[in-house]
């Protein structure tokens, strides 16, 4: 197991995933997403350093949800064009068309999840924002603003505890009933947001007083570059999809998005 | 970005990060509703996923606030673990554009409740068109799809428009927004009366 995926340029990795998802959106058969999903998971397994316990846990949740999705897309399916062509699905006799579409939607969702997990589990959030600024021309003002906002999250958790404690000290009793719990949400949310806005203002002043101008021509402590490996990864992700599509055309499984309106 | 003050950018970023978490927290709620009612379950609470663009635009009143805040919120949502992955950034951009369109139509001059509700409706329509192609709504029966659209539009107007305005006004009352467009407008109204 290597950490190749972890060391890729985060922007290129994101672009590769977005392109793959966009292409898959137009595929309407169960076979292609299934194979591609398996390939992506194998890819993550072979080339990534991932917290596997977390990965598997997350994926199981997605699988559970996808069963719900399978059910709803069969139950709420459009009128089939050939209702007489049926298939045995678990215990029911259902129109083949509906089952195929539902299966393809569900497997597609599972493949999307595999693709996005490949990205999330191998990418550091701060690196991603820095790379967006260096490779994708994200304005530094915005990038550092987002990083500052991200940094506020643990602080806000602390603040929430303080607000809760302050309420308790003053004898605010626990909410009971819908109306009171809405009131309670408001009592927490507004001070929390107000505190965050105050902090944001102070951070902006601090940044400006230390000479942050937001100019685009700046140097970086952590440099991100796009190398040959990044392009290789991008092209191999797309090539794999094309190869799988070619195989499924050959086997007669493939079905394109042809206006299933 | 040049006519934005750094203060405004950071406040927008912070709002987006906070609501990125709210967005993520509402996903299981949506999924629960979906498992009872089918895909339409999401549409009842879909307005929650546009709310930051309405709040940011209403507070800052700058071109691009709705679009940028929604995009950042979607990015944060992805980074914190949305299963949809980087594609959700594009979803966020499209929703943000929908809200932005409503503000642009008023040339960024009017921020009444109706305009905010219209922004929610705009985001709902844009997101529906996107969802139609990506989420495979095409496979659902037509009356069902139409009722999904109607429910989503109402949700966009009520949850993001009305609730978004209520949250922003409540924040303005605390005085933290005094150096931003919404706070200034309230202060002006107060000193006149």
UniProtKB/TrEMBL annotation, chain A:
InterPro entries: ABC/ECF_trnsptr_transmembrane, Cobalt_transport_CbiQ. GO terms for cellular component: ATP-binding cassette (ABC) transporter complex. This is HMP/thiamine permease protein YkoC. Keywords: Membrane, Transmembrane, Transmembrane helix. PANTHER family: COBALT TRANSPORT PROTEIN CBIQ. It is found in: Membrane. It holds the Pfam family CbiQ. The keyword Transmembrane helix applies. The chain crosses the membrane at residues 12-28, 59-77, 109-132, 228-249. GO terms for biological process: cobalt ion transport. The keyword Magnesium does not apply. It is a multi-pass membrane protein.
From TrEMBL, chain B:
The keyword Transmembrane helix applies. The chain crosses the membrane at residues 6-28, 40-60, 80-99, 111-132, 144-163. Keywords: Membrane, Transmembrane, Transmembrane helix. This is Energy-coupling factor transport system substrate-specific component.
């Amino acid at each position: 197991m290597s950490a190749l995926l972890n060391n890729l340029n985060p922007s290129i990795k994101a672009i590769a995933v977005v392109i793959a998802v966009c292409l898959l959106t137009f595929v309407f058969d169960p076979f292609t997403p299934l194979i591609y999903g398996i390939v992506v998971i194998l890819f993550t397994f072979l080339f990534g350093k991932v917290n596997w316990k977390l990965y598997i846990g997350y994926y199981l949740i997605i699988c559970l949800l996808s069963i719900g999705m399978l059910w709803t897309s069969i139950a709420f399916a459009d009128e089939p064009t050939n209702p007489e062509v049926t298939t045995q699905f678990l215990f029911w006799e259902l129109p083949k068309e509906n089952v195929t579409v539902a299966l393809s939607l569900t497997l597609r969702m599972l493949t999307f999840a595999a693709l996005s997990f490949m990205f999330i589990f191998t990418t550091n959030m701060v690196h991603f924002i820095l790379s967006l600024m260096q490779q994708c021309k994200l304005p530094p003002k915005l990038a550092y603003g987002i990083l500052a906002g991200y940094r506020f999250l643990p602080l806000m958790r602390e603040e929430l505890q303080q607000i809760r404690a302050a309420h308790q000290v003053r004898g605010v009793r626990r909410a009971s009933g819908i109306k009171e719990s809405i009131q309670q949400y408001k009592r927490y949310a507004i001070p929390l947001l107000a505190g965050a806005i105050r902090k944001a203002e102070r951070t902006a002043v601090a940044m400006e007083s230390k000479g942050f101008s937001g100019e685009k021509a700046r140097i970086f402590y952590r440099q991100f570059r796009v190398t040959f490996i990044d392009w290789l990864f991008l092209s191999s992700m797309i090539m794999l999809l094309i190869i799988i599509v070619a195989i499924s055309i050959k086997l007669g499984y493939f079905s394109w998005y042809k206006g299933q309106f | 970005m040049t006519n934005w003050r750094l203060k405004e950018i950071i406040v927008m970023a912070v709002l987006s990060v906070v609501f990125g978490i709210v967005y993520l927290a509402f996903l299981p709620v949506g999924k629960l509703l979906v498992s009872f009612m089918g895909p339409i379950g999401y549409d009842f609470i879909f307005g929650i996923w546009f709310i930051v663009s309405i709040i940011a635009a209403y507070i800052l009143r700058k071109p691009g606030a709705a679009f940028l805040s929604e995009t950042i919120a979607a990015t944060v949502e992805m980074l914190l673990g949305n299963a949809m992955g980087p594609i959700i950034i594009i979803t966020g951009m499209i929703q943000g554009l929908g809200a932005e369109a409503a503000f642009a139509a008023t040339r960024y001059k009017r921020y009444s409740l109706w305009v905010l509700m219209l922004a929610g409706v705009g985001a709902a329509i844009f997101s529906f068109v996107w969802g139609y192609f990506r989420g495979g709504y095409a496979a659902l029966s037509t009356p069902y799809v139409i009722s999904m659209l109607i429910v989503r539009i109402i949700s966009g107007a009520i949850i993001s428009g009305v609730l978004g305005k209520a949250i922003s006004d409540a924040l303005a009352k605390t005085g933290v927004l005094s150096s931003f467009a919404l706070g200034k407008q309230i202060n002006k109204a107060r000193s006149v009366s």
